Amino acid sequence: MNVLIIGGGGREHCLAWKISKSPLLDKIYAIPGNAGIAGIAECIDINTSKDNFTEIIKFVKSKGIDLTVVGPETPLVDGIVDYFNKEDLKIFGPNKQASAIEGSKVFTKEFMQRNNIPTPPGVIFGKTNYKEAIDYIKERKKFPLVIKADGLAAGKGVVITGSEEQAIEAVKDCFVRDRFGISGDKVIIEDFLGGYEVSVLCLCDGKKIIPMTPAQDYKRIFDNDKGKNTGGMGSYSPVPMINDKTYMKILNDIVFATYNAILKENITYKGVLYAGIMMSEGEPYLLEYNCRLGDPETQVILPRLKDDLLPLLMECAEGNLSKKELKWD
User: DSSP for 81-143?
Assistant: First the structure.
């Protein structure tokens, strides 16, 4: 089987390494790849922007690629899966409609509220409601507050603000300074929940969902959980504070409930559904969803997976996952 991996980070290197262990594999290609991946795969320098999807499809056809695996979120949100589906080419990842679960925090917040899935209380404001957003902050007596830009922001669109002044500046970054471009045209002003976060990644085939082992990453840029959020400063798995009972509560109350709601709303979701969970006073709350494997979580989850990853990815793409659970070290 010939496999193409799209992306060029540590997550994609780990994917290439894990896929390379499969007896089903003939050859791996990566677009664009990196120096580490080059030791496992043939790296091809093709731009992965939306305007270049047709070039990627030409490459896939020329090399007889059996499965394309998308690492980063931007091509998924831009609809690369839809392009492949039109050409009847196998690809691992959700389509554009389903990828909105990461592409728009407003979409996800409204989805969670509509389906009664536990999530911190939040109010949505658009750019035209800038004054109302500032007034809302000034009326608040309790901080911290969380300001979330609606669209993709490379893991930097969520700001935990400890004061009225900081919250106003975070809204100005979106609505006045245009720091995040159109991704900041809407914001969610959300209640802050204390506790600890855990990442729960699941494989989905459009009908079934299989959870992976949980992981925890370090988001803040400085030691002792200080400073702004990043895309991730490291990760570990297993997570010692998550026992089986807690994990099942997370799955039943949030993850499985979400997937059932996705099916109920006639959304076809294949690929990875990645829940960012906050455990606060023993209860799980959904902070955000991502539509792809986490980075850096992938680098600590996949090495623990005993199963052959490649057929699992293909089964997700084809809509026929055969396993009910995965095996872990």
Answer: HHHHHHTT--EES--HHHHHHHH-HHHHHHHHHHTT-----EEEEEGGGHHHHHHHHHH--S-
